[in-house]
């Protein structure tokens, strides 16, 4: 089963997506997600100029061999551009293999380990009444777990707040779903950590008082705290029993997580900006995290992320795969198949794509009673409508960035 055609497709229905489409000599097709938010064209060039010529004529069945070839033969390894490109190839090959076998990908990975995937939604508000309304809306949509993000007094725009509309991105999606704003330059936002640390525990106290102790609640710190600040926040949030505190401090310095662990029992989720098992190796081995936040799209595909999660399982660490709308429906489908099959699944991030995106990417997944399921179509269960995709050309977009009140650039 030989790959005889490889196409890199860029479309921007609600946001920019990069999709690799492989076709075999017997007419089977496979899709892979290569989207890297705000740097999409870098992956397009990597695929088009360097990877596609290497794929033509290869045996589509040889997934592991192809992964190792693309990773090792380049010499310059790792990094988000390289790994997103490899991921697109890997996922497309799993899609093809599933179609060739007449089975959904999760069956090829060992079959289902559960009936569906617990998913969390994203509630936000500029004040407590609007936050409560957002939580109720997500409960009505069927979510059983909810991430809580809130505006901070004195700050004009904070990550993940849908109602701060002056910073709304392109298309119809809410700010917390797609913060990348279309235009020639990134939007500048503001940040101060002290007001955040003072305000957030009060918000969680209010949410628990309003909705009770049963709902799993999550929060994303978005890499903005120093280790001691993260430790302080984790300890302050302990009375409100978080499912996890995500990205509490920049994880490049992984030793920092030791300090956080020393001071709080709040579970930690890390890794949405990681690219390989090497980024996770030490913090898994030393049990410094509770959930692996890697994305199929950014970790080199199903093949690589499954190995990482199998390693995490040795330490009772679970999956918490990245799943905002900069993961295309193809990448989300891959995450669902992987999550359904592995034993140490934890939770799946789930942001609902916009209507135009769902017209471009025709999907078989189901969402019922708070659980996702990828469906039972052979392969991934996603097909790309090229005519629809062609209606939405690429538009330059950047994620925002932060400055402190004194003008210092800060982590966004």
Automatic annotation (TrEMBL):
Cited Gene3D superfamilies: Enolase-like C-terminal domain, Enolase-like, N-terminal domain
UniProt superkingdom: Bacteria
SUPFAM superfamilies xrefs: Enolase C-terminal domain-like (SSF51604), Enolase N-terminal domain-like (SSF54826)
Any Pfam family hit: MR_MLE_N
Domain Mandelate racemase/muconate lactonizing enzyme C-terminal: 129-267
UniProt cross-references to InterPro entries, sorted A to Z: D-mannonate_dehydratase-like, DgoD-like, Enolase-like_C_sf, Enolase-like_N, Enolase_C-like, Mandel_Rmase/mucon_lact_enz_CS, Mandelate_racemase_C, Mandelate_racemase_N_dom
PANTHER family: D-GALACTONATE DEHYDRATASE-RELATED, STARVATION-SENSING PROTEIN RSPA
Protein name: D-galactonate dehydratase family protein
Species of origin: Microbacterium jejuense
Lineage, highest ranks first: Bacteria, Bacillati, Actinomycetota, Actinomycetes, Micrococcales
């Amino acid at each position: 089963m030989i790959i005889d055609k490889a196409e890199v497709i860029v479309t921007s229905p609600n946001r920019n997506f990069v999709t690799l489409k492989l076709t075999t000599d017997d007419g089977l097709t496979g899709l892979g997600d290569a989207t890297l938010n705000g740097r999409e064209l870098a992956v397009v060039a990597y695929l088009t100029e360097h990877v596609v010529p290497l794929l033509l004529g290869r045996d589509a069945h040889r997934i592991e061999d192809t992964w190792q070839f693309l990773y090792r033969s380049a010499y310059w390894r790792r990094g988000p551009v390289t790994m997103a490109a490899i991921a697109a190839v890997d996922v497309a090959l799993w899609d093809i293999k599933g179609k060739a076998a007449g089975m959904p990908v999760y069956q090829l990975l060992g079959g289902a380990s559960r009936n569906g995937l617990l998913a969390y939604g994203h509630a936000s508000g500029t004040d407590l009444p609007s936050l409560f309304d957002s939580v109720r809306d997500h409960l009505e949509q069927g979510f059983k777990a909810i991430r809580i993000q809130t505006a901070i007094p004195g700050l004009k725009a904070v990550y993940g707040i849908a109602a701060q509309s002056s910073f709304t991105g392109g298309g119809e999606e809410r700010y917390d779903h797609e913060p990348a704003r279309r235009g020639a330059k990134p939007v500048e936002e503001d940040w101060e950590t002290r007001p955040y640390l003072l305000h957030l525990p009060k918000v969680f106290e209010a949410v628990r008082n309003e909705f009770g102790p049963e709902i799993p609640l999550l929060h994303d710190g978005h890499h903005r705290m120093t280790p001691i600040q993260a430790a302080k926040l984790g300890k302050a949030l302990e009375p409100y029993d978080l499912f996890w505190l995500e990205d509490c401090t920049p994880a490049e310095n992984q030793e920092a997580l030791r300090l956080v662990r020393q001071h709080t029992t709040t579970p930690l989720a890390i890794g949405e900006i990681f690219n390989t098992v090497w980024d996770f190796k030490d913090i898994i081995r030393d049990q410094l995290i509770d959930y692996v936040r890697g994305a199929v799209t950014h970790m080199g595909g199903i093949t690589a992320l499954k190995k990482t999660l199998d390693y995490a399982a040795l330490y009772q660490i679970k999956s918490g795969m990245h799943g905002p709308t900069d993961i295309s429906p193809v990448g989300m489908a891959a995450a669902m198949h992987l999550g359904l099959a592995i034993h140490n699944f934890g939770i799946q991030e789930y942001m609902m794509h916009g209507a135009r995106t769902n017209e471009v990417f025709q999907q078989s997944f189901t969402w019922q009673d708070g659980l996702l399921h990828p469906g039972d179509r052979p392969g991934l269960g996603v097909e790309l409508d090229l005519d629809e995709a062609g209606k939405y050309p690429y538009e330059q977009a950047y994620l925002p960035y932060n400055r402190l009140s004194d003008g210092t650039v800060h982590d966004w």
